[in-house]
Amino acid sequence: MSRPADALDASFPVAASIALDLIRRPEVSERWSSPSALPHLSVGGLACHLGRQAIRAAELLPVPTDLPTLESADGHYERAAWVSEGSPDKDTVASGPDEADAERGPADLHARSAQALTEVGDLLSRGAAREVVPIPWQGWSLRRGDFLLTRQLEIVVHSDDLAVSIGVPTPEFPADVFDPVRDLLVRLAVRRRGQSALISALSRTERAQDISAF
Per residue of the chain (214 residues), what is the pLDDT tens digit? Predict the structure, then answer.
């Protein structure tokens, strides 16, 4: 199910702005080196992963691509190897970009994320963002609406992870941000767990099952 680009053009900067507000909370800086709610990842590493969504968008939205274009965001998650690999182990997390970025500290993340948000807003508002956006680490492209939806999903999901990690309420996202992410997660959960698992979990507490999308 492909998303129209114009709808996400408006909602993605809102999502990224909410994420930036969360990243800037003093609790994040205070607990920067503490373990997060995700295995093997520090609060600082998780904050960097969250901030990277706007940074990736700023980097990739203006880039031309000749990589094959998938039909939907759903297809991106169906093909991505990490979806079926489970949580990364300690060594993989330690050697990854999130902890490396965290070593640069909160102020660096704040500055890079704020600059990226400004750049994304400018690219989208003046029509400089490409209709098809590369995802070079995967070897394919997505239409801009689908690309932004994947980044928006990352923001919504990891904002919850970060909020839980620092003991603050999870940010409330407006409907135009949250609803497309919710719908994508439901489709992915049905694909992975089946219709019966989803129906049981949503309607019958006595038969609730694991319906995680990933």
Answer: 555 567 899 999 999 999 999 999 999 999 999 999 999 999 999 999 999 999 999 999 999 999 999 999 999 999 988 776 666 777 777 778 999 999 999 999 999 999 999 999 999 999 999 999 999 999 999 999 999 999 999 999 999 999 999 999 999 999 999 999 999 999 999 999 999 999 999 998 888 888 999 8
DSSP string, 174-201: PHHHHHHHHHHHHHHHHHHH-HHHHHHH
Judged on CB neighbours under 10 Å (0-12, 13-18, 19+), 50 is: buried
Burial of 134 (0-12, 13-18, 19+ CB in 10 A): buried
Give the CA dihedral 48, 112, 61, 182, nearest 10 degrees.
40
The CA-based diameter of the chain, rounded to the nearest angstrom, is: 52
> Could you tell me which of 213, 167, 164, 175 has the C-alpha nearest to residue 191?
213
Question: Residue 1, CB half-sphere, CA atoms under 13 Å: how many?
Answer: 9
DSSP reduced 3-state for 134: strand
Residues pairing with 143 in the sheet: 132
Which spans in the chain are helix H? Answer: 5-23, 26-30, 43-60, 73-79, 81-85, 90-94, 97-102, 106-125, 144-166, 175-193, 195-203
Q: From CA 213, how far away is CA 145, in angstroms rounded?
A: 20
